[in-house]
Amino acid sequence: MVDPKKLDDIAKKLSDAVPERLKTAKDEMSKQFKQVLQTQLSKLDLVSRDEFDTQTQVLLRTRQKLEELEKKLSELENR
Prior knowledge:
Order of helices and strands: HHH
Number of domains: 2
Structural class: mainly alpha
Radius of gyration: 25 Å
Number of helices: 3
Distance between the termini: 53 Å
């Protein structure tokens, strides 16, 4: 779901932000940053854009059908 290259880029940016005196552990820190990012992102309940768009369309159709049924019910009650 999440592009591994983007995770690598974020981990690299984080490790680049580490003070110079800690740069000796840069590679290890980059790996740890990436691992933490992957772990935390996996805990999120994320969906792909396609799935989101599909569910949005399903919800829209469901709302339309509900409105139609409410209208019919109202008409029947008025008789």
